[in-house]
Amino acid sequence: MEFKNKTEEELYIANCTSTFIKEMNESNDIQNLLDVGHRILGQPLMLVDISMCFIAQSGGESVKDEPFWDWILTNGYVKEEYTNLIMEDDISTEEKFVWEYGMENHRQLVAKIIQGRTTLGYLKLLEYNHKITDIEKEILGNLSNLIAILMSTSSIKYKFSNSKVEAFLESLVERKTTDASDISDRFSALNIRLLERLFIIAIEPVSKTELAVEQLYLLKRKLHNLLNRPTVFIHQNRLIVLFDTSATSFEEDYNYAPLMALLKEYKLQAGISTQFTELSLVADEYLNALSALTLGKRLGLKDTFIFFSKHILDQLILTYADSHNINYLIHPAITALDKIDKEKNSEYVISLLTYIRFGQNLTNTARELHIHHNTLKYRIAKIIELANIDLTDYDLCYHLYLSGRTWELQNSIKNT
Predict the structure, then answer these.
(1) What is the pLDDT of residues 19-28, one digit of tens each?
(2) Which of 91, 140, 209, 322 lies 20 to 30 Å (CA to CA) from residue 114?
(3) 68 pLDDT exceeds 90?
(4) Residue 74 and residue 269: Cα distance in Å, rounded?
(5) Which CATH architecture best describes the domain 6-151?
(6) Are 32 and 161 contacting, i.e. CB atoms less than 8 angstroms apart?
(7) What pLDDT shows up at residue 178?
């Protein structure tokens, strides 16, 4: 676009800015604002946060020959080494604009999203369809200033766009994509190769407070870099990971220890689904991971990882308790022995339950209870006499085991 004089240029810039302000006032939506920016500037736009995690874009679907854009739109974040490669100037400089070079076919102009003295993110304009002019640079700066207002207004709830992988994973979690062959084809098209054993990890704070948007995106980037997987996404204000491993269990994967350290550092807790192999089960396993988190909150568990598979019986008991009197699950023998324990300060209940849990093995049970083998042998005989029970009866032993879990859950809930 050509202008006759400086006045025409300034009027055009003012009109563009006025269009941005009108859209911001009407929608309060970053994506809509980017769409207007793309229409005015005629170039693809991308918004990333300070950790270089993808937030939103407009016009990116038209980019066919730029690996950087394809990578970030597919995976949702910028690889560490690529970030260092493309920066001509240090991003920490006080300049409003930075040119990024080092990409294969195009350079891009980056405007910092700044509120006060705090950098909130970066707005990237790809020099794809024509050379970026000084007027477009000024318009980009005005657009970035308005985005800064939206990003710094905590009362506004943003609906950030997702990468292609994230959007697809969300469609699996929400059961929008359920056909096994379609799922497999989509994973192949996105070039995602998974190892044979799968888990869903749902992550949220140990406390009941939600993570701020900035924290979510920072932690998502850290998880991307730590796990070296594109299958990390944000859903319903939680961090979700489709975790794949060739190890025989989640605990044996080499990422187990560093992931635990990261979660502890940020006071986070993770619900771990059961192991699965079919991608069509993602939605079900996502619910299992959430159930593990809910159970952890309900019981006041402080574990960093809460495994659904280790608490299946607890889930069944608590589900029953939501609509029935939980005491119906407890065998009368446990109730009677608990009463004796309270009167005489004995340990009959814990001794019996531990004995059953260790398969009625006297040696292992005595070691667990830190008592002598003969002491335990006498105590078990006394328990059988007092409760009038037959520990050779399999059904009775199973009921006693169920009673024990119920009894322990009752005590855990009382103490939370």
Answers:
(1) 999 999 998 8
(2) 209
(3) no
(4) 27
(5) 2-Layer Sandwich (3.30)
(6) no
(7) 85
Q: In this structure, how many other beta carbons lie within 10 angstroms of the beta carbon of residue 79?
A: 16
The count of other CB atoms within 10 Å of the CB of residue 21 is: 14
Tell me the three-class secondary structure of 308-321, residue by residue. HHHCHHHHHHHHHH
271 close to 293: Cβ distance less than 8 angstroms: yes
pLDDT for 86:
47
**Distance between CA 311 and CA 30 in Å, rounded?**
42
Same fold, 6-151 and 164-310: no
Average pLDDT over residues 322-330: 88
Q: Is 92 exposed, middle or buried (0-12, 13-18, 19+ CB in 10 A)?
A: exposed
pLDDT for 342: 93
Nearest-5° angle of CA 287, CA 291, CA 296? 150
Strands 97-100 and 108-115: antiparallel
Domain ranges of the chain: 6-151, 164-310, 326-415
Could you tell me the fold of the domain covering 164-310? Alpha-Beta Plaits (3.30.70)
Give the separation between CA 159 and CA 378, rounded to whole angstroms: 65
Mean pLDDT for the chain? 87
Token pair for residue 45? 């736009």
Tokens 């019981």 correspond to: 299
Residue 272's DSSP bridge partners are 201, 307
Question: What residue has token string 């961090």?
Answer: 239
| DSSP secondary structure letters along 246-300 | SSSSGGGSTTHHHHHHHHHHTTEEEEE---B--GGGHHHHHHHHHHHHHHHHHHT
Per DSSP bridges, beta strands 232-235 and 97-100 are unpaired
Q: How far is CA 138 from CA 11, 16, 119, in A?
A: 12, 10, 18
End-to-end CA distance of the chain: 67
Residue 253 · residue 161 · CB < 8 Å? no
pLDDT (0 to 100) of residue 172:
93
User: DSSP for 191-202?
Assistant: T----SEEEEEE
Across the range 379-385, mean pLDDT stands at 95
Assess if CATH 1.10.10 describes domain 326-415.
yes
